[in-house]
From TrEMBL:
SMART domains: CoA_binding
Protein name per the record: CoA binding domain protein
Domain of life: Bacteria
Origin organism lineage: Bacteria, Pseudomonadati, Planctomycetota, Planctomycetia, Pirellulales
Pfam families found in the cross-reference section: CoA_binding_2 (PF13380)
Organism: Rubripirellula amarantea
Amino acid sequence: MNSIENFLSAQTYAVAGASARTHKYGYKVFKALLGAGRETYPLNPVTEEIEGHKAYPKIADLPIIPEALSIITPPEVTRQVIAEAIEAGVKHIWMQPGAEHEQASQSAREAGINVIDDGSCILVLLARS
């Protein structure tokens, strides 16, 4: 399996940067994962609920450790989210276009995490499946 297949084979997901605003990519990615039948948790430090799902400020606040994490945040926020993901034991990280942070990617890879940071968009892949 390649990196993307590994990511999509996970059982549980979190979306860092999930948004209640329907025009935002964080909303679209969260909805796409839910629509694909994936158990998905929204991560957003300022929003309490997204589409009827409780939003959590950070990974440590989730009721489970997600296997996979999609990140739609500015690069400096991405750096912090990845540090939390490494600490929590997340196995797969997909930085959506514009969220990439080179040092954080390197740290995640060194921690043995499957990292996708090549500009691929999860929305494109989920639309194909």
